[in-house]
Amino acid sequence: MRTSLRQPYKQFFGTIANHCRLEIIQALSEGPCNVSSLCLKTQQNQTTISHNLRRLEHCGFVFVKPNGRERVYTLNQETIKPLFSLMQTHMENHCKKYLEEKTCHTH
Predict the structure, then answer these.
(1) Domain carrying residue 62
(2) 3-state helix, strand, coil in the chain (%, to 5)
(3) CATH number at residue 24
(4) What is the DSSP secondary structure assignment for residue 17, as one 8-state letter?
(5) For labeling, which of 1, 24, 27, 74 is most exposed (least CB within 10 Å)?
(6) Which of 57, 13, 17 has the alpha carbon at shortest distance from 35?
(7) How many structural domains comprise the chain?
(8) How far, in Å, CA of 85 to CA of 58, rounded?
(9) At residue 100, does pLDDT exceed 70?
(10) Per the domain annotation, does 91 fall within a domain?
(11) Residue 27 forms part of a structural domain
(12) To the nearest whole percent, how much of the chain has pLDDT over 70?
């Protein structure tokens, strides 16, 4: 890999390698949310959600629009939503054994 690509790839994959950010992405895949809604959906506190939203916004995973006194977040529909759909399809088709093992160990 070219050296010039290492840092952007590290930033990108580091962004999605976080459980809280994945939960935020999942919640936003269902529709736009403000921070309070994301806190409820993810069972995370406001500081944690806000911190992770900054990273997601910085990397273009989410967009934010002011709506009165609140900020409403949406998932990047052009790139991130299709990417996660593709990742889900890949997991279902190629990672079944791993997923089954994880399910068996959690019950």
Answers:
(1) 3-76
(2) 65, 15, 20
(3) 1.10.10.10
(4) S
(5) 1
(6) 57
(7) 1
(8) 21
(9) yes
(10) no
(11) yes
(12) 91
Q: Which residues are 74's β-sheet partners?
A: 63
Q: How far apart are CA 19 and CA 8, in angstroms?
A: 20
Element (H, E) at 25: helix 19-29
DSSP string computed for 78-102: TTHHHHHHHHHHHHHHH-HHHHHHH
* Residue 89, domain member (yes or no): no
- What backbone torsions phi and psi does residue 71 show, to the nearest 5 degrees? -115, 130
**Residue 7, domain member (yes or no):** yes
CA dihedral angle for residue 6, residue 7, residue 10, residue 11, rounded to 10 degrees = -150
Task: Decide the pairing of beta strands 33-34 and 62-67.
Answer: unpaired
